[in-house]
Write a structure and sequence with these properties.
By secondary structure, the protein is α/β, with parallel strands linked by helices. The protein is built from 9 helices and 18 strands. The protein has a 7-stranded mixed β-sheet. Strands 7-8-9-14-15-16-17 form a 7-stranded mixed β-sheet. Strands 10-13 form a two-stranded antiparallel ribbon. Bound molecules: zinc ion (ZN). Zinc ion binds next to loops. Its cofactor is Zn(2+).
Length: about 290
């Protein structure tokens, strides 16, 4: 099962209706917690996300709204008796902050620290790209391996049924029939996660081909000067990112507390997003991973 659970959608300052950041991605057997800001532990309870489901925690950068929830979440995992290994990924330059936060947590978790400093793979099916923020920041990409989809009429014509289908899949060949004769290439699903950044190549790379893209949208187009000054995206820039990468769906989040109604930001993003579906996230939303395209 794959879905995105929104735990918080506020930037810098939380509001009555928006908690600091926090995103939980269910990805088959993995549970990835992204950027746990303050209050994430309680938001998980509201959203029905059990701490024991977390297998990885991924930080884009060490500004407080993206990591101050870490000690609480880690302590809760110890309290709940989590025995499986948990992997914590973060920019290498944020090591001091991360170690300080981890040191506050109840000891006892099988926690593995994985700093990264360059673009590329950081774990099986997970890659990072540099973002452009006021401190070092990286966005994440989660990729399902490519596979093959069987074409039933061709299988039938080849007389392959039942357990032979599985055999063909594993062996790549069954008698004269090759796997590629009766199936087509199926690109793996892709998730992109772009947090605090100005427009940059890394953000475009993460948006490219994403079935679901989460992008910060701190400012309205009308406040583009502020976005420029603080190295954040406007809604229009987030939309353009998704549109140019041909993303299936764009989830906008990380809103400045100055906007009571983020409907305007969603409309601005739609104006530049082309065929991409645009959703303005609310706290506690459960967003099913989009089904395969084409
Ligand atoms: Zn932030």
């Amino acid at each position: 099962m794959r879905e995105l659970v929104i735990l918080g959608t506020a930037s810098q300052v939380p509001t009555r209706t928006r908690n600091h950041n926090g995103y939980f991605l269910r990805w088959e057997r993995e549970g990835l917690l992204f950027d746990p800001g303050e209050g994430t532990q309680r938001q998980m309870i509201h959203a029905g996300v059990s701490a024991s489901k977390i297998t990885r925690i991924c930080l884009t950068h060490v500004h407080g709204d993206h990591c101050f929830g870490l000690p609480g979440v880690l302590s809760r995992m110890v309290l709940d008796g989590v025995a499986h290994p948990v992997h914590l990924h973060y920019p290498a330059s944020g090591g001091d902050v991360v170690r300080a936060l981890v040191s506050l947590a109840t000891p006892g978790l099988d926690l593995h620290l994985h700093p990264h400093g360059t673009a590329g793979p950081i774990a099986d099916g997970i890659e990072v790209e540099p973002l452009r923020h006021r401190i070092e920041a990286f966005g994440y990409r989660v990729v399902e391996p490519d596979g093959r989809t069987f074409l039933p009429p061709l299988l039938e014509a080849a007389g392959i049924t039942g357990p032979d289908v599985g055999l063909l899949q594993r062996e790549g060949r069954l008698g004269p029939v090759r796997l590629e004769d009766v199936s087509v290439h199926r690109p793996g699903l892709r998730f992109g996660f772009v947090m605090d950044t100005g427009v940059c190549d890394g953000a475009f790379a993460l948006a490219d081909g994403a079935d679901l893209l989460v992008a910060e949208s701190t400012f309205s187009n009308d406040d583009a000067a502020l976005a420029d000054q603080y190295l954040h995206l406007t809604a229009g820039q987030a939309g353009a990112l998704a549109g140019s990468g041909g993303a299936g769906s764009l989830v906008l989040t990380h809103f400045s507390s100055r906007y009571d109604d983020v409907g305007l930001l969603a409309a601005q993003a739609r104006g530049t997003a082309g065929a991409t579906t645009v959703i303005a996230a609310s706290d506690l939303d459960h967003i099913p991973f989009p089904s395969r395209r084409g």
